[in-house]
Amino acid sequence: MRAVTRVMSRIALLQIDSVNVVRRAHYLPLFSRLGPYDVEFLHRAAGTAPRRFFEYWGHEASYLRVDLQPALRFRMAEAADVAWGSMRRVWAEQPDLVSSVLDEVATRGPLTAREIEHDAPRTKEHWGWNWSHVKIALEWLFYSGQVSAARRNSSFERVYDLPGRVLPRSVIDTPTPSPAEAHRTLVRAAAKAHGVGTGQCLRDYFRLKPKPTADAIAELVEAGELLPVAVEGWKRPAYLWHAASLPRRADACALLSPFDSLIFERGRTERLFDYRFRLEIYVPAPKRVYGYYVYSFLLGERIVARVDLKGDRHLGALLVQGAWAEPAAPTETPQRLWAQLESLAGWLGLGDVAVAPRGDLGPALKALADST
Questions:
Q1: Which residues 6+ apart lie within 8 Å of 121 measured at CB?
Q2: Of 230, 248, 266, which residue constitutes the final position of a domain?
Q3: pLDDT tens-digit readout, 108-119
């Protein structure tokens, strides 16, 4: 648990995504930084008292450090203006339903939407969703901070409860900061996570608006917490977190999921690593360049390869459906990547790594697979 908490003290959030091709997105950044770890630590930290993490809209749906909850209350207060249209319509047009759903959670929570909705009408307004009006009302209550997520169940459904029964008392009792102070808190967290970044990097981390973020950056610069710097090859001004350390060398060796905070701001990824990454989940299969769910391979201080992965539980294998080296990838890339793939497969409980010889790294990885 200590190691999980230490990582979160640095990166602040884990993006949540429903895609489960290898393992759900929020589990992977901890594996990338810690190696094989017990996921029950994350379940306990986010799903049992006293919670260290909570779920809310950070960088998309996220697990966040619980001390950041007060800084996100401004977003909850703005729900009537910024929540999705279907949520705002339910709130405006069906207030009795919203009130009834909140009463159900207060009386019988923690509850999933299915435990409340019964025969409620459904909408197909959004691609891939089939939400009932009760579910939309719950999402409105969640966005506006009137309910929280007590945990996710085995079907990956949110289990809703009142914030007072989810969040630590110390968080509930924390006074709500002004929007300006909230933005300074979030920009601090983003700067600590990034080490160095542009204003866009700092804004994107928590999906903040440009003006209040720019104001927060200026105030943190004046306070000496952010240091204006020039980064070679970057056109935009950059900011260095005042406590960032510069290691003698970078010894990183990690597979990065598409939703890892190191690379989810694509412009920063290109500037920092000279590496262009695009998510191809929604690209028709014939038009994909690399694959459905591609992991990036960080070696030292560079991203040197990418691999299209799938965890096949039926076959008991981690499938490498393609692998490609970046220009000037070092000669040891296949061996170092293979070691990470074996480690990932073992952590997933898969007994084999099966490689298709697709991509310029595919044959070398297949040779390593055949030799084991």
A1: 132, 133
A2: 248
A3: 999 999 999 764
